[in-house]
Amino acid sequence: MMSVIATSGVREKAAPAASSSPQQGPAVTGSARQGREASGLYWSRRASNHLLQSATSRPRAHATRSARRTTMRLLLRVANLTAKPSEVHAVIALTRIIVAVGRAVSARKTRIVTISTRIVSITGRRHAEGRAPARRCVSVVGSGVTPEILHRTYAAAANSEVPKMIHIATSAEIGKAVRRGLRVPVAFVPDNLLVGPCASDPEVHCQRRYDFWGFRGREGTRFRASFREMLGAVQSRKRVVAWTSRLWSDAVALWGLCAWRLHQRPEQPDIEIVILGDATEAGFGCGSIRLTPADARRCQDDARALSLTRAQEMARCWRKVSGRSPVLSAVGGRAGRWSKDLVELSTYQAGFFPRMDGRALALSRFDELLFSCLDKQWSTPVNVFVRRSSAGDELRKWLTHTGDVFLAMRLRQWAGHRGDKAALESEPCQPENFMKEARYRLSDAGDEIQRAGLAEIGQGAPLPVWGVTAYDPLAPWVAVDDDTDHQRIQRLEERAAQGVE
Fold first, then answer.
1. Which of 78, 109, 173, 389 has the smallest CB count inside 10 Å?
2. Residue 52: pLDDT above 50?
3. Burial state string for 199-228 with b = 16 or more CB within 10 A and e = fewer than 16
């Protein structure tokens, strides 16, 4: 239930009344003082004096805008205060503020409008007692004003006017289910972070993702709007409830949310986590989760606070995946210190980098599977996706994480790399359908790459993978098999030096 504040009593008075000192304020009766102290609705002299000084010491236009903004902030803060229950309904508030604004505006011979439309009058007790509910109004403040008594019923319900928490989902699908299940606004991470570039800075991150997907028109506008809504929620001063799952894509998104949240609130992130689904949905080959609004309603009581230590660990994971070196590089740290998710995701990242097979330079594991599903016959992305073979089966496991859009994008990248020397040939097919927009087949160069490997690292189509780029001649990272069960990633020149030794 929202609180009741009547602002309809604000009225203009003669100029002499406005010249009364804002430090003194009007006389307050015993019952009014008791109600004021019980509800916490009063402002210090420092606030009103600061308002007066800031409004009178600046140019006219700036002073008016500053007074309006300050009045809005103060009025909204009064309306949103959490107050104790009180049987006294007469409360005097905002007197010093409005008098100070009146004096400041009078000095500039300007009239402003008090912003009181957000102070809503909804009653519980007033209706029960047969009294008419208070009204919302907009009152003009001229050369001097003094408000009448402000009435408030059930001050304890003031915190219901503005929600104390904000919901963020790590994917659009989770956000949709939570929004429908709880009927609350939900911001969400707008795309799949298992593919494409990432950055520690949120603004740089947004621009890189926008460029990677090649958004245009309304699609790009929606993406930017969703990202800025999510970032605004992360930077909010309210408690954040993060809805996520055990999928790798949601894990990476949660790391980013924690990193950006800690940047704003390093000492107290104030995050609660709701994990949907179960542990069987984690790991390679598990790229989707089935979630209904009823599931969201059942899980809302399972929210648990995220400790500062755990939030810092997740932020460190985000810095690793968005760093300038692959996670499994020699400078990436020891895997023994990492969480299970980071170990698995570092191996996943390595699957997009070209490999050193002895002294030969081979395609990445993902591209090797992709080329194995192509031949000299024309194939659309759909044909590649449904290819019946062992390579096709493994490729589909990768695509549960990357999505089918990435398949069409990667084929297009290979066909457009190096012009006439491209590894894939292409021809238009059905431009209105991205999974059938073109047909592809191996060129002679592609057939040679499939059989003998890469002649040089620049022969491969560059692919941004989080903070680094695979097949980049300027930063030639390659995956090598270690003596253990895990891979590691080295610079090509380092590997060559080891081979000479």
1. 109
2. no
3. bbebeebbebbbebbebeeeeeeebbebbe
Say if residues 263 and 323 touch (Cβ distance below 8 Å). no
How far apart are the C-alpha atoms of 479 and 372, rounded to whole Å?
20
Give whole-number Cα distances, 484 to 273, 303, 335, 480, in Å.
Answer: 35, 39, 12, 11
pLDDT value at 383 more than 80: yes
DSSP 377-424: S-B-HHHHHT--SHHHHHHHHHHHHH-HHHHHHHHHHHHHTTGGG-SE
C-alpha 262/C-alpha 416 separation (Å) is: 41
Report d(CA 142, CA 12) in Å as an integer. 7
Residues 6+ apart with CB under 8 A from 496: none
Q: What is the pLDDT of residues 95-114, one digit of tens each?
A: 455 555 555 545 543 344 33
Residue 211 has pLDDT above 80, yes or no: yes
DSSP string, 25-89: -----HHHHHHHHHHT----HHHHHHHHHHHHSS-HHHHHHHHHHHHHHHHHHHHH------S--
Q: Which residues contact 276 (CB under 8 A, 6 or more apart)?
A: 174, 243, 244, 245, 289, 291, 295, 296, 299
